[in-house]
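USER: Note each token:
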Amino acid sequence: MTILELVEPAPAPSTAAPVRKDRTDLYLSVGLTTVVLALLAWNIAGFPTASDDEGTYLAQAWAVQHGKGLAHYTYWYDHPPLAWIQLAAGSWLPGLIAPGLLAVAAGRMAMLPLQAAGLLLVYVVGRRIGLPRWAAAVGLLTYGLSPLFLTMGRQIYLDSFAVVWILAALALALTPRKHLWHFAAAGAAAAVAVLSKETILVILPAVLVALWQNTARSTTRPWAFGAFASGLVLVGCFYPLYALLRGELFPGEGHVSLFGAIQFQLGSRSGSGSIFTAGSGANSLLHSWLYYDSVLLVAGAVATVAALVLRRMRPVAVAGAILIAVALRPGGYLPAMYVVQVLPFFAIAVAGVLAWVVSRFQSWQRWSVIAVAVVLAATVVAPRWYVGDRRALTANDNAAYVEAARYLRAQPPSTVVVDDVLWLDCVNAGYPQDRVIWFYKLDLDSEVAARLPGGWRDVDYIVSTPAVRQDPGTLPTVSALLENSTVIASFGPADGVIEIRQVSKEPS
């Protein structure tokens, strides 16, 4: 027995009941996510129209699954490969369960767990920047019910992987526990985001703002930033290290390179023009986004600017403001899927500003403010969203692709030129991989040209789709195939017809 035990009496045994954890956040976020996910999955095979980008990323995931390298053709460092490596981990399952599905439709289903994680993280980030439960729920629903999300969120885009990982980095940087491993994990998550889609790198300052606000200057902040930098560098260095070990870090004769691809992206790629210039690619793209959902884009942009003055909202506002600034820059390249990165930050900003406005009123007045917001949502937002959401749930824009895939599966294997939407369907149907040719590679890949010593005459069929016909003048072999072939089957309406064309061996 020690002296301390003699002086101080032993503590009485505790009779208090164990404290039960409040699981309201868990039940609320999971319940709302389940509802949105059901809407996202409904008619996912029918809408929107399958794009060549989706087919490309899915084919690259197939190459990873089957040990064919990082892509189904020579990987040229166009984008970091981590997104389709992640896709490869789960894209095999839907096709195994329903083998008759269009390959892109099966790939879209494999994206659903990722989108569920993104929805949950929108709620988590909202709560960690101080939003009340109802506001975090509004943020989740604003994001998930937007017609833009129900359209773009269904598609197989690298941006979807990147934005989920950057949201995870924000959630970890805002951790209330402030453990160093959380900050290191935030750095690792940010690195995974960049290795999924390199353009997400511009949002990194938002994570640093969150880290700064969530740490104390004299104690945890230096260690937190050190841990974050360690996670970021240790994970991020794998990609350039991979290129270095393969002798492909710098441009050289006879091989692709990482820096060569960066030079192309930054200097050689043609821009989309200014969004303020009528008729430019960027202006047309902005109008297409506004067509689907002007409510979230306009309200989100306004809320983002307003949220910059609210300290707790600043990490999310900085992310949104940077994305707005990048979209507004003149002459840069603006891809169609760029809006995928914008939507969650706009949704959180809208919810955060709404919560701030409500908090300015006395408790007895808040219900009046909430009632006004509900009425506005029901009379202004709901009618606009109903049209877009209804189309997402009912349209069947991929019927022609489904019929073309079914036709190709029934034919004996041959040398066929297709877009990347149908590439994997042909391979899965038993066509030899080297005899299914993505149309872009006919004129742009010397290895493909070497397999066709007779040029277009060595091709048996070409499947003419809107993507194949989009700009044939820049692809002379594709043009020759279209000119020297006849239609043997066609599917779909005239403005989006898909034709199976048999190639004549003699010029017409």
Summary: The chain has 26 helices and five strands. The chain has two domains: 24-394, 399-503. Residues 1-10 have pLDDT under 50 and may be disordered. Residues 46 and 398 are 5 Å apart (CA to CA).
